[in-house]
């Protein structure tokens, strides 16, 4: 403990502020409903000499070992790659041919490449910021945002995006997985079945919460491996079978929208940028890796990211380009709708059912990793109050409660996927494409006016502008693409 205290005395005031939001001093950052907030103002905290930290505050491993994200730091680059593949590749990639209907071959390919490189750059920034100072780790996106922007501004900027991209994604996975489960039963059953969407949502949620009883994120490596394998499999099968079965006729590859109207173009760009996700989980995944001064976790994480993104590129680019070549202007609804529409008679019902089964398994596995930050926050509330580890029975009850809540929201608002453009522009785009650049500047403090500073500030500002434009485009498209708000009628 003496060595740690001596290191703390050598920290500057800015470094001490960074330490306050790191894993070494886990405090609940959310509202009182979930987590405790220190009500002292930042100004008084800055002028008051803090009391000497006790042993519990000095030892980051004590509270880390209580929480499901950092309970086990025995991961490796391959486990990290499994988690990244499971969280990043998803059913949304099957919609990548759609933007080409509006953008055409050239601009569609350019936008897809730019989005891929941009989000890969911000991932590298995040994995480097995970250990901004030697021995200080940020294993939660919200904590890093609070360290970079300040407690209040960090919560204002990142709280809603982090909540939506964790809990909200679980709701969307229930809707998508439950809907695909219903399609599976309708495909395999020759007779009329009384199985409704409500039954499928409930069955999907029960299976998901049963799997969610695994204790921590590192223990879910096998689940993520299964999710990664099935996601790669159905991405490969959809474009390979589309080519093998032949193209429908007639086809057209001409852009379907006039370039004088910017909103369809922006909505097409939105479909591309939404295809890349999982940044809100990257720090959590890196938190499962071991770290030492000789071998920091960012080296291991960089290896895992490299493995994962080579595979991701091999999935998304063929899906987009070959998928558009195979269906052209007939790709409305994406490959998940176009393939059964044109080729159902060319494949057996068991082959079609197998594709649906792969999507369901991937939704179940993705649910686990997206739910983990929520489980972590709920248990952090308990450990902050009780100063001890959450007991097993309470952990099970919290996860059952979360499953029930997400099921209720999915049933109450089954039209949420129709609002994904609006909500994604408000949450995924800033958190993925803008905030990492600003956090890098705030924490690393490159020379103001230098090319590193200008590049990151400019890229971050462009990301925020893109988010605002995509939100405006989503709002403008609502009157032209109305949907039925079928509350409690999935």
TrEMBL record:
Naturally occurring in which organism (per UniProt): Senna tora
Main location: membrane
Short name of one Pfam family: Aa_trans
Superkingdom to which the source organism belongs: Eukaryota
Alphabetized UniProt keyword annotations: Amino-acid transport, Auxin signaling pathway, Membrane, Symport, Transmembrane, Transmembrane helix, Transport
Function: Carrier protein involved in proton-driven auxin influx. Mediates the formation of auxin gradient from developing leaves (site of auxin biosynthesis) to tips by contributing to the loading of auxin in vascular tissues and facilitating acropetal (base to tip) auxin transport within inner tissues of the root apex, and basipetal (tip to base) auxin transport within outer tissues of the root apex. May be involved in lateral roots and nodules formation.
Transmembrane stretches, start-end: 105-129, 156-175, 195-214, 221-243, 263-283, 304-327, 354-375, 396-416, 422-443, 450-475
Name recorded for this polypeptide: Lysine histidine transporter-like 8
InterPro entries cross-referenced by the UniProt entry: AA_transpt_TM
UniProt keyword annotation of Transmembrane helix present: yes
Family under the similarity heading: Belongs to the amino acid/polyamine transporter 2 family. Amino acid/auxin permease (AAAP) (TC 2.A.18.1) subfamily.
Gene Ontology, cellular component aspect: endomembrane system
Amino acid transporter transmembrane domain span: 74-475
Annotated membrane topology: Multi-pass membrane protein
GO BP annotations listed: amino acid transport; auxin-activated signaling pathway
Compartment(s) of residence: Endomembrane system
Signal peptide annotation: none
PANTHER family: OS05G0424000 PROTEIN-RELATED
MF-aspect GO terms: symporter activity
């Amino acid at each position: 403990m003496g060595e740690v205290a001596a290191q703390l005395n050598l920290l500057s005031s800015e470094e001490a502020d960074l330490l306050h939001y790191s894993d070494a001093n886990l405090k609940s950052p959310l509202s009182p409903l979930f987590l405790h907030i220190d009500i002292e103002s930042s100004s008084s905290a800055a002028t008051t000499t803090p009391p000497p930290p006790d042993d519990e505050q000095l030892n980051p491993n004590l509270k880390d070992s209580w929480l499901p994200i950092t309970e086990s730091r025995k991961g490796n680059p391959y486990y990290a790659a499994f988690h990244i593949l499971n969280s990043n590749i998803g059913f949304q990639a099957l919609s990548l041919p759609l933007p080409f209907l509006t953008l055409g071959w050239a601009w569609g390919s350019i936008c897809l490449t730019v989005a891929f490189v941009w989000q890969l750059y911000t991932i590298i920034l995040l994995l480097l910021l995970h250990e901004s100072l030697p021995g200080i780790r940020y294993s939660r996106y919200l904590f890093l945002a609070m360290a970079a922007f300040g407690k209040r501004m960090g919560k204002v900027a990142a709280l809603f995006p982090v909540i939506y991209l964790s809990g909200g994604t679980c709701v969307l996975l229930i809707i998508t997985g439950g809907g695909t489960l219903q399609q599976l039963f309708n495909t395999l059953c020759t007779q009329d079945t009384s199985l409704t969407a409500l039954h499928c949502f409930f069955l999907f949620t029960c299976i998901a919460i049963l799997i969610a009883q695994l204790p921590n994120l590192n223990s879910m490596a096998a689940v993520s491996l299964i999710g990664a394998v099935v996601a790669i499999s159905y991405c490969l099968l959809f474009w390979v079978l589309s080519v093998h079965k032949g193209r429908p006729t007639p086809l057209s590859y001409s852009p379907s929208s006039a370039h004088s109207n910017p909103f369809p173009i922006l909505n097409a760009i939105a479909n591309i940028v939404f295809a890349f996700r999982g940044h809100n989980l990257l720090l959590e995944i890196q938190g499962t890796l071991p770290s030492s001064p000789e071998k920091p976790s960012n080296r291991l994480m960089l290896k895992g990211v490299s493995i994962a993104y080579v595979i991701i590129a091999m999935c998304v680019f063929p899906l987009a380009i070959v998928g558009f070549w195979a269906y052209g202007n007939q790709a409305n609804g994406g490959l998940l709708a176009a393939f059964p529409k044109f080729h159902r008679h060319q494949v057996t019902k068991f082959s079609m059912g197998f594709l649906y089964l792969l999507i369901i398994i991937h939704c179940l596995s993705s649910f686990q990793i997206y739910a983990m930050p929520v489980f972590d926050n709920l248990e952090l509330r308990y450990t902050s109050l009780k100063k001890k580890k959450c007991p097993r029975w309470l952990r099970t009850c919290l996860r059952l409660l979360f499953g029930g809540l997400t099921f209720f929201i999915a049933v109450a608002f089954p039209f949420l996927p129709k609002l994904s453009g609006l909500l994604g522009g408000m949450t995924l785009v800033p958190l993925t494409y803008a905030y990492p650049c600003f956090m890098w500047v705030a924490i690393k403090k490159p020379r103001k006016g230098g090319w590193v500073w200008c590049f990151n500030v400019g890229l971050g500002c462009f990301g925020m502008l893109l988010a605002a434009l995509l939100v405006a485009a989503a709002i403008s498209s609502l009157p032209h693409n109305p949907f039925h708000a079928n509350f409690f009628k999935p």
